[in-house]
Amino acid sequence: MTQPLIPGIDMRYRIQRHGQLVYEMPHYTTLGDWEARAHYLREHLLAVLGLYPLPERDAPCLQVTRRQECDGYTVENVYFESLPGFYCTGNLFRPLDPQAPCPAVLNLHGHWERGRLEHSALVSVQARCIAFARMGMVALACDMVGYNDSLQVMHHHFASRRGALWGISLMALQTWNAIRAIDLLQSMDEVDSSHIGCTGASGGGTQTFMLAAVDERVGVLAPVNMISAHFQGGCVCENAPGLRTRTHNVEIAALAAPRPMLMVSATGDWTVNTPEVEYPAVREIYRLYDADDRLAWAQVDAPHNYNSESRMHVYRWFARWLLGDEAPAADPERGGDIGACSTESLRVFPSAALPEGAPVGPALERTLGDHARARLQSMPVDACANPSEWHEVIRRRWGHILDVEVPQPADVLSQEHPGGDLPEWSYRDVILGRRGQGDFVRGTLYRPVRRRSERPVLMVHGVGRGGFYDALARPDERLRAVLALGHDAFVIDPFYTGTVPEGIAYRPPQDWFDLTYNAPLVGHRVQDILTALAWLRGRPGADDPALVGMGGAGVWALWAAALDSATAALAVDLEGVAQREDDPWVGDEFAPALRAYGDVAAAVAALSPRPAWLAGAAGLDEEWRDAAYASCAPYTIYLTDDPLNTAALVAWLTGMAPSESERVKRTDTGD
């Protein structure tokens, strides 16, 4: 018996991802397939962290609080401003007699009790930095946020939805600090900017392959004791909303290909399977580049670590690829007599006295938020300079943070079921799904007997189809008005509206880890709208559809129309959510970096030059709107503070101009 094209239940109700699932590496048959995927993943990682596209920046200014000259190396206690008011702290180790230009290695640490200052048999950041310096390389060790001298964050916990709305999270801050650390190393006169490596263990391993994934300046890497198919990282700093909705650490690590990477593992932790599972999976990607020799693995019989044996593997790897000679890696730790400095002598702020005016705790979060808002204010200027490119950036950002894609009509599967014929209209039930996705969207298509328009109208309500029915389950006056004008009308139950299946496993993502692995609830709903729009476009003889959103679905429809440029026109009731506050976005409407990317204002700008009627639009940022619609004559966007009622809907569909008080007038810029 053949299986139905569309599953009997929406699989999104049944399957939820988490960090302890066993993930399999997808199979890529051609280099082109992989590179298309790699481009998507790099963009996705940056987008959900609030970093897409990467901002322009100058080299940071290095500040030194102490310098020591030791046996074969020097070490400086340093800090630099990675964001306005936010400091990255650490130690800079240099060869005592550098042969400039020399390679450089960024050293990142994990969740050891003393962070970068840990110096024990199990792990020593200092030992490997000293060894790199004695081998002839510059080595920079940086604090994780909230460790050691990173005193602006009181605890290593920076995970709130409000912060994530602005791209503020530990993962984002640490990734950005690492990018800025590479900027710093490349700016140093004695560093060969084309020969830069990165290594770290545990959470430092996560930082290492995350950095390499988004920053191709990392030429060689050695993530230690972290890459695993069955464990993705247990700290909030290794997770962030949206990060792994469609991927996992093994695939993210493979983004380093074809750059040289050593996968170091241990028998006593979650990397025990590296030789048989994770390494072969990543090797398949390196083979697409014919670069087998640039990937290797090493495993030590030890618990979770970055011990001397693990470090020796890394020294040889970095010497081979950064120095072109493994000889300097013969015994850089001098038989265990490393000659380490005292922990206290390596402190950047030993008295905990930060630079004057440095914000701490809640004040830091406000400062970072202010920086995000300042970046946001420059975006309307970009819209005027290059509107088509700006629109594309907006659409890419929204696609990633909502975790949606705009399907083509051929991607949409449909099943139609008999409905009924009435004197003024007929109707039939429709089930939609996307090929290979397992999703399931219920809808009802109404067709007027006297059809006078080939433009169908998709109508979306916050409670589903029932929002357009009266008490007797008949079309209400809004739906009847659309049909009376001769339009086909399609009403749907977006995800988690209408009749929800009994006994479902799904629950909207609640905590930081849920949000890391699962699409936001609003993203599922927007996806269903996009699927319905694609189906309407694909019907024989139909024009591009118009879209209506109301009853809590106004912003869902707005996001969908901003993403799908084939949506001909839009009418939505925003119900006052454009008031420039975070509160509407921390619940079911949450998506990572949503506020950092301009939320309603940016989505409205992406609509231009298509006609749009925005009801309940009090507080909408007019600068964005005007920048986007400045070249539209006459203006095709109309705003009102009033709700979207039946009369307004009819006026919009019939092309009637609103009253002069509601119309947005184009600014006359002159010649």
Task: Explain this structure.
With 671 residues, this protein is of the alpha/beta class. The protein has two domains: 31-374, 3-Layer(aba) Sandwich (Rossmann fold); 388-501 and 513-654, Alpha/Beta hydrolase fold, catalytic domain (Rossmann fold). 30% of the residues lie in helices and 19% in strands. It is built from 18 helices and 18 strands. The chain has helices spanning 31-48, 125-134, 161-165, 170-187, 203-214, 249-254, 278-288, 308-323, 362-377, 379-385, 387-402, 477-484, 512-517, 521-537, 554-563, 599-607, 622-629, 646-654, and strands at residues 63-70, 73-83, 86-95, 102-108, 138-142, 191-201, 220-224, 261-268, 295-303, 412-421, 425-434, 441-448, 457-461, 489-493, 546-550, 569-573, 612-615, 637-639. The strands form two sheets. Strands 1-2-3-5-4-6-7-8-9 form a nine-stranded mixed sheet, with helices on both faces. Helix 17 (622-629) links the parallel strand 17 (612-615) and strand 18. Helix 14 packs across helix 15 (554-563) and helix 15 (554-563) crosses helix 16. The longest helix is centred in the N-terminal third of the chain and has 18 residues, at 31-48.
Describe this structure in a few short sentences.
This protein has 671 residues and is of the alpha/beta class.
